[in-house]
Design goal:
By secondary structure, the chain is of the alpha+beta class. It contains 18 helices and 24 strands. The protein has three domains: about 180 residues, D-Maltodextrin-Binding Protein, domain 2; about 150 residues, Dipeptide-binding Protein, domain 1, CATH 3.90.76; about 230 residues, Dipeptide-binding Protein, domain 3, CATH 3.10.105. The strands form eight sheets. It has a six-stranded mixed sheet, with helices on both faces. Strands 3-12-11-10 form a four-stranded mixed sheet, covered by helices on one side. The longest helix has 18 residues. The radius of gyration is 25 Å and the shape is globular.
Length: about 600
C-alpha cells in the first residue's frame, strides 16, 4: 500500500496550462513556468472553454487512454495502478483521498472517525443512505466482512498484510447500530490513512452463508491458526481468478458500474441510475460523464494519432517527449489543456540481492557491485534526454517534496572508472578476454550478463534501458532487455525471478510506512520487497518510522533508514516523477491535482455549447 497524505511544504506543481481556444499561439510561453500553487491549493482549476468548437464531439462518453490494463480487478489480490484508478469509480471506502487538500476525507463514513487519546481506537459512523446496487443498505456487517476477508490468512494479498497486521479487532458499537470501532494494536502513522486502500465489499455477494461471521480477527492472528473446511472453501472461491475478472464480482458501491472488459481493447464504466449519492457534493460521488471508456493505447504513435483525431479525451500516462511535441502544435493547444505535475512517485532499477543461484546467478550480492551499477547509471542524461528536464533526481524512496527527505545523501554521478575499480575490488575481471567480466563463485564461473525486466506498456523505459545498457557495457557488463506485459512483470518480481527490474512506485503526501517494500518479512512472503533487502537493523528502523506518531521525533529515524538503503544500494533511484496530464477542452469542471490520480474523471462535465 502506498504512503498516504501528510501535507508538505515546498510542494511544486510544474504546470503548463493551455487555456486559449483556437487562437492559442503555436508555442505556448507558459511551458517553462513553475507553478507553485495559490492560497495553499494543491491543484490547478482549469477554466471552461468559452466556445464549443464545431469539431468537438457532443458525446457524453469520456474516452481515456489506458496504457496498461489491470492484472485483475479483485478487491485485494492485486497491486496494479490501473486497478486502483478504476476502483475510485467502482468502489467506496471508509475514507478516501481528499484531492484538493492532499489529505483524507470521509467516503462511506459520514465524518472523520472519533479517535481516542491513545490513537488506537477509532469509531466510524456510516452514511445512512449508502446502498448497494440491489438496494440493500451498507451496514456495519459489510465493514466487518470486508476487513475479515482482507485479514484472513488464506487471502492471497501478501502486499497488504503488513498494514492490516496492526488491526487488533473491528467490532460493532452497542449504542450506534450504524457504526464500527477499529481497535488497533498500537499507535501507527497510517491508522487512518490505511482505510483508503481497502474497498468495502458486499457480504451478501461474497459471503452469502456468513462463513466469516464465525471467524474473529484475533483468531486470524493466532500463530496456531488452522482453517476449517468451510473457510478453506470460501477462500478458494475468493482467491479464484474469476473473482477478479468476471463482471458479476466486479461490483461495488461507487457511482459507476463496471460493464465490460474487452481484453487488449477497452474497459467500460457506465454511471448508475438512481445512484444513492446523486445529491452529494463529494468529488468521488460525482457522475459527470455517462460513460467512462478506458481505451487501451500503448503505442505512443497511435496515441498521437488518436489525439490528432480528438478520439481520446484524457490521459495521465503520456510520456514526456510526446507531450512536449504536442505542446508545439497549435491545433493540440486549441483542443486540449495539458500539464506537467510534480508528484510523490519515483522510478528505480531494483537489484536482486538474494538470487536463487541457479536461474539467476550471484552477480549482485556484493554491495560494492551494486554501488558500481549506480555509478554506471546515467540518471542525469536520462532526465535530460528522455524526460526533457521535466523531473528531478532522487536518491531515496522518500519524495524530495517532503520535509523528511534526507538531503545529506549525495546524488551519485556517472563515473565509469570508479565503477570499474569497485568491480575489480569485488573480484570481477575479464579472465577470458571476451569483454565481459567474470568471477568464480563457489567453484562455478559466472559471467556478468544480466537481464533487465521492463514493462512493455511504458515506452520511455525501453529508451532508458538502452541508455543504461550502453554505459554498463563500458565496464564489462552485458544487459539484455526483457520486455513483458505488466502482469508478467509483476509476477516475476513477486517470485524474485529477475536480475534487474525497472519500475516505479506511486506515492502520495502522507507519512510513509516502509514495511511492504522494504521489510525482510515482505521478501519472505513474496510481497513488494522483491530485492531481498533487509535485516534486523533495517526492520527496527522501519518499526520506529511507522510507530512513532510525532513527526519531529520520527524524522531522524526516517533519515537514518534512507541512509541505510543508500549504503546497501538494493535500488538505483532514477528520478522523482512528474505526471503528464491532458484533457480535452470539451470537458469542464476540471482540475489537475498534485495527488494521484491527477484528474477526477467522474467529476468532469461536458460543457454547454455556445
Amino acid at each position: 500500500m502506498s504512503s498516504k497524505l501528510k501535507s508538505t511544504t515546498g510542494l511544486l506543481l510544474l504546470c503548463i496550462a493551455l487555456f486559449a481556444c483556437q487562437s492559442t499561439p503555436k508555442k505556448n510561453p507558459q511551458n517553462a513556468v513553475v507553478y507553485k500553487g495559490q492560497d495553499g491549493k494543491k491543484y490547478l482549476a482549469l477554466a471552461d472553454a468559452e466556445v464549443f468548437d464545431k469539431s468537438w464531439s457532443h458525446s457524453k462518453t469520456l474516452f481515456v487512454q489506458m496504457a496498461a490494463e489491470p492484472d485483475n480487478m479483485h478487491p485485494c489480490n492485486s497491486n496494479s495502478e490501473m486497478r486502483s484508478i478504476l476502483n475510485n469509480f467502482v468502489h467506496k471506502y471508509l475514507l478516501t483521498l481528499d484531492l484538493e487538500q492532499c489529505g483524507v476525507m470521509p467516503d462511506l463514513a459520514i465524518a472523520m472517525p472519533e479517535e481516542d487519546a491513545t490513537h488506537t481506537q477509532y469509531v466510524y459512523t456510516l452514511r445512512e443512505n449508502a446502498k448497494w446496487d440491489d438496494g440493500s443498505p451498507i451496514t456495519s456487517d459489510d465493514i466487518l466482512f470486508s476487513y475479515k476477508a482482507y485479514c484472513c490468512p488464506l487471502t492471497q494479498n501478501p502486499h497488504q498484510k503488513p498494514y492490516l497486521n496492526n488491526i487488533k479487532r473491528i467490532e460493532k458499537v452497542a449504542d450506534k447500530p450504524n457504526a464500527v470501532r477499529f481497535v488497533m494494536e498500537r499507535a501507527y502513522v497510517q491508522n487512518l490513512e490505511m482505510t483508503i486502500d481497502y474497498p468495502i465489499i458486499q457480504e451478501k455477494l461474497f459471503d452469502p452463508t456468513h462463513i466469516l461471521r464465525k471467524e474473529s480477527f484475533e483468531g486470524f492472528k493466532d500463530k496456531n491458526f488452522k482453517a476449517n473446511p468451510a473457510l478453506e472453501k470460501w477462500a478458494q472461491f475468493f482467491n479464484d481468478p474469476k473473482t477478479g475478472h468476471e463482471l458479476q464480482w466486479i461490483s461495488g458501491a461507487g457511482p459507476y458500474k463496471f460493464v465490460d472488459w474487452k481484453a487488449g481493447e477497452a474497459i467500460i464504466l457506465v454511471k448508475k441510475a438512481n445512484y444513492w449519492a446523486t445529491n452529494s457534493a463529494q468529488i468521488w460521488d460525482q457522475q459527470g460523464p455517462d460513460t467512462i471508456y478506458f481505451k487501451s493505447v500503448k503505442d505512443p504513435n497511435t496515441l498521437m494519432l488518436e489525439l490528432k483525431n480528438q478520439t481520446i479525451d484524457a490521459s495521465t500516462f503520456l510520456s514526456a517527449k510526446p507531450l512536449l511535441s504536442l505542446q508545439e502544435d497549435s491545433a493540440f493547444n486549441a483542443n486540449y489543456n495539458s500539464c506537467f505535475v510534480s508528484n510523490f512517485n519515483y522510478s528505480y532499477i531494483a537489484i536482486n540481492c538474494k538470487p536463487d543461484g541457479v536461474k539467476h546467478g550471484p552477480l549482485f550480492t556484493d554491495k560494492r557491485v551494486r554501488r558500481a551499477l549506480a555509478y554506471l547509471t546515467p540518471v542525469d542524461d536520462i532526465i535530460k534526454v528522455v524526460y526533457k528536464n521535466k523531473c528531478g533526481r532522487t536518491v531515496s524512496m522518500v519524495s524530495p517534496l517532503k520535509a523528511e527527505y534526507n538531503k545529506d545523501l549525495a546524488l551519485i554521478p556517472v563515473d565509469v572508472e570508479k565503477a570499474k575499480a569497485l568491480l575489480a575490488e569485488a573480484g570481477w575481471k575479464d579472465s577470458d578476454g571476451d569483454g565481459i567480466l567474470d568471477k568464480v563463485i563457489d567453484g562455478k564461473k559466472w559471467s556478468m550478463r544480466a537481464d533487465i525486466n521492463i514493462m512493455n506498456a511504458v515506452p520511455d523505459w525501453k529508451d532508458i534501458a538502452n541508455m543504461v545498457a550502453e554505459v554498463y557495457r563500458k565496464a564489462g557488463i552485458e544487459l539484455t532487455i526483457q520486455l513483458m506485459d505488466p502482469g508478467v512483470f509483476v509476477q516475476k518480481n513477486k517470485e524474485h525471478d529477475f536480475d534487474l527490474s525497472m519500475g516505479s512506485w506511486g506515492g502520495v503526501s502522507s507519512a510513509d510506512d516502509f514495511t511492504s517494500i522494504w521489510s525482510s518479512d515482505s521478501w519472505k512472503t513474496k510481497g513488494n520487497n522483491f530485492t531481498g533487502f533487509g535485516n534486523a537493523q533495517s526492520d527496527a528502523l522501519i518499526d520506529s518510522c511507522k510507530y512513532i506518531v510525532d513527526f519531529n521525533r520520527r524524522v531522524p529515524y526516517i533519515k537514518a533508514f534512507q541512509a541505510l538503503v543508500y549504503e546497501e544500494q538494493p535500488y538505483i533511484f532514477l528520478n522523482s516523477s512528474t505526471r503528464r496530464l491532458l484533457l480535452h477542452k470539451r470537458w469542464g469542471n476540471a482540475k489537475f491535482f498534485i495527488q494521484r490520480p491527477g484528474i477526477a474523471l467522474n467529476s468532469l462535465q461536458l460543457i454547454q455549447a455556445k
